[in-house]
Every structure is written in structure tokens, then in C-alpha cells.
Amino acid sequence: MKVPLLLLTVAAGIMLHACGTKSEEKTSETAPAKSPYTQEQLLLQDSLWTGIMAVHDSVMPKTSEINRLSQRFKKELKENPKLDVATKSQLITVLEFLEQSDASMFDWMNNLKQINNLRKAEMPHEEIVSYLLQEKAAIITVRDAMLTSLDAGRKLMEQHKMKW
User: Fold this and answer.
1) For residue 74, what are the CA distances in angstroms to 26, 81, 91, 139?
2) Rounded distance, CA 2 to CA 5, Å?
3) Rounded distance, CA 164 to CA 77, Å?
4) What is the phi/psi pair of residue 81, to 5°?
5) Among residues 29, 94, 98, 162, which is most buried (max CB within 10 A)?
6) Contact call for residues 60 and 115 (beta carbons, < 8 A)
7) Contacts for 130 with CB less than 8 Å, ≥ 6 apart
């Protein structure tokens, strides 16, 4: 009986030691590198990023309506070649405005640098804050253009009693 008990104790000791070693190795491999930013700086950066994304997320779903209006105006122009000059001009102007505002959203998204990439590049905190403030202003401009173009498109639909 003493031999099995001794073997069991040795086996348990080996297992515990092996588990402890793996755990320590895992921790050292996955531990994050020391950040060049203070906790307060990270919180400010995260707050600015969250604000940018909130503006983006509030207006991004509007791209589908912009596209629907654009398609509707293109269809109107194509199917009614005898539109009066004023109506045709209005349709073209609003269509261009819709398409520009939609393109500006996608341009902004394609050019936006992700916060984690800025941090990985160890960009100075002040530069990150400056960049994020510029991007917040840019996405607000995009949002305003999208909402204004949508409003113009809706009004034009009503004005000319256009149906979907």
C-alpha cells in the first residue's frame, strides 16, 4: 500500500509542478508590454475614440437611405427624359450632394487610423489627442453633410410627389 501511495504523491507533485510552470510561461508570454501612456492618458484617448465612434455609429446606418434616394433620383432622370429643366437640375444637384456625402463617409472610414495602431507606433500622447480631435471634427462634418443631403433628398421627393 505504501508504494501506490508514494507513486500517487510523486505523480501529483509532478502534475502540480508542470501546471505551475506552464501557467508562469503563459503569463510571461501574454503579459502586455509596458505602455508608454499613463492610465489617465489612456482613458482620455479611449474617451475621444468612443466619442468619434458614437458619431460614426449614429450616422452610418443612414447610408442605406442615401443610396435608396440616389437610386430613385437616377431612375427618375432615366425614365423621364422630358423633365423640365428646373426639376432636372434639382434632381442632379441633390443626387450629387447625396453621392458626395456618402463618399465622404467611406473616405473618412478608409483613412481613419485605429487607436491601437497609433499606440503600437508609440505616437506621443499629445499627437494622439490632436489626431483624435481632428477626426472628431471630420466625422461631425461628414455627419452634417449626410443629414443635410438626406433632408434635401426627402424634401425633393415630397416636392415632386415622387413615389418609391
Assistant:
1) 59, 11, 8, 27
2) 5
3) 14
4) -65, -15
5) 98
6) no
7) none
